[in-house]
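Input record (one chain):
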Amino acid sequence: MITHELKVIERMSSGDGLSVEFEELMIQGVSIDSRSIKPGNLFVPIIRELDGHNYVSEAISKGAIASFWEKDHPNPPVHLPLIYVNDSLEALQKLAAEYRRELQVKVIGVTGSNGKTTTKEMLNSVLQTKFRVYKTEGNLNSQLGVPLTVLGIDKDAEVAVIEMGMSERGQIEQLSRITHPDIAVITMIGVSHLSSLGSREQIAAAKLEIISGLKNGGCFVFNGDEPYLTKELSNIKKNISIETISFGQGDFNDVIAENTLSNSDGSQFSVANDTYYLPLLGAHNINNALATIAIALRLGLNSAEINEGFNQLKLPNMRLEKISSPLGFTIINDAWNASPDSVNAAIMTFQELTAYCEKHLVIGDMLELGDDEIEFHRVIGRNLDPDKINYIYTFGDLSSHIASEAKRRYPIGTVMTFKDKIVLANALKRKINKNDVILLKASRGMQIDSIIPSLMK
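The corresponding structure, as predicted from the sequence alone:
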């Protein structure tokens, strides 16, 4: 993590006003939360729902060495080591960008509409078989989270895998310029953020901003099955010198999977005559594995090391997470987030499961889909197959359109709509039997996974 004297931190963050008596104090790490301050931290007061400036004195009393303070904010505490900045977030980002320049670490930036976190975790698991790897923790992939991630990188790290998220144009460019990646990855282009960006073409353009901070001669790894990426990339390459590696299902890609066999435990496939096994539910995860393999091979790993990394892979909760009930049924919790692409992938995986008696799909609203949000939900409902999924339970206003379409094909009483999660859970408990399986899928804002404790009783 970052370790510097305060006078150096002041310069790196473009701040001023630090009292001379505090210049030699040494900070170790950065925090934005006074509740989790560690001794030696620099506290950064961010203004969100709460104003971080109200917690500066508390943070320093708990062991923070110093704090930023926005210049137009009134009543700075006297006799405390403060660095005055125009904007705390901008100062944090500047500090992270300067610290990145000091590091010898090779940075891999990962973005995409879906699969960012899974690919990040795959890369971490695979690359740490050979390198000292630092990765984005949790979901710290925002304008605030990425600089905090960079500032936490140890100076002896050899590779840093940094996830980058966005909600509007310009954000990925900002994060790319902070992280200055050696390798940049776009997993895929979906329809998340249509409400703010308007079209898949604009989403692709926003994701391609990751190239803006890519080192000269760096490597861009991308989903070659995405026409919006390949089309725009040809124009980008006219102005910069980068290496490109495409992955995907089309045989025109540089890295493709062949001889694929998938079951309820994982997928086996081959790439360039080497066989790999990925112990994850869902054939759609093979694309994320292809991106990982492409990068690992470029960094000098062999197929045995890559397979070792896949074998040790552990994903965060709520990503096709299997939960076994003491009552004999299984829950597959995929409720971290939802878009038409991720819902279709999850449903396809669910339909292909053969080790269970009856299948129960619990599906909530997909959010941030723009003007066509109702039609996106209707399409999901039209594609549900009563021969492959036995019961449908929808939760929320938008997902009721899934139910209305599914009812056209499903037997009476097998498609149910709910506005109350307690009522939903009770209805599900009346239907579920030993050896059945439940899939939970919805956008994070719906918090559909909150019914799990009730189901497990």
